[in-house]
Amino acid sequence: MPQYAIVYLGGNQPSSPEEGKQYYARYTVWLSSLGNAAVSPANPFKSTSTVHPDGTVVAGSETAMSGYTIIEAASMEAALEMAKTCPFLEIGGSLEVSELVQMPVHTADVKAPRERRKGLFEQDALGRTPLFDAAEKGLEERVKEMIYSLRGTGLSPARLALIAAEDHTGLTAADVAEQNGHEEIARLLRSEQGRMEYYG
Known about the structure:
- There is one protein chain.
- This protein is an alpha+beta fold.
- The protein folds into 2 domains: about 5-100, 2-Layer Sandwich (Alpha-Beta Plaits), CATH 3.30.70; about 105-200, Alpha Horseshoe (Serine Threonine Protein Phosphatase 5, Tetratricopeptide repeat), CATH 1.25.40.
- The chain contains 8 helices and 6 strands.
- It has helices spanning about 15-35, 75-85, 105-120, 130-135, 140-150, 155-165, 175-180, 185-200; strands spanning about 5-10, 40-45, 50, 55-60, 65-70, 95-100.
- The longest helix has 18 residues, at about 15-35.
- The chain is elongated, with a radius of gyration of 24 Å.
- The chain starts with a strand and ends with a helix.
């Protein structure tokens, strides 16, 4: 079934916390009324910046876009009918409804990154992953590439597992980096591990 993006534009800020609560209650009721048609119900934006053609960056949005909802509908007409009942219109906002284009994805393109990530956890005879090797050799950019290839800005269980992994002697990649005089890499790994454990 086709999917449609409902984009929120403009809208007046509530005049009081109570008014904001009332609007939010109506909005959640509307989202619930969409049922299974709501593929990705609420995706609000914050801290928007605009990059211009000359590379300059300006804080704020030029379109007053504040978020979006993705729905499934049999047709554009059906999607528009859903949008017409959204309480966002009651606070002076406008809604843009667009059909999403499904781009073809080649299986090989998807599998390649997965295979590379899987390789990050392969161990040698000492129980060491490729991260240990990069840390031992002081390859800071390679270390960053490895750990940040594993998704998650908050808790990333895979990233935590990679960083916290110990070899057969109980050493982590950070320990190995420190032993070989690569303090920056050791600090990076321990800092990232601490952050992951905090979110956990």
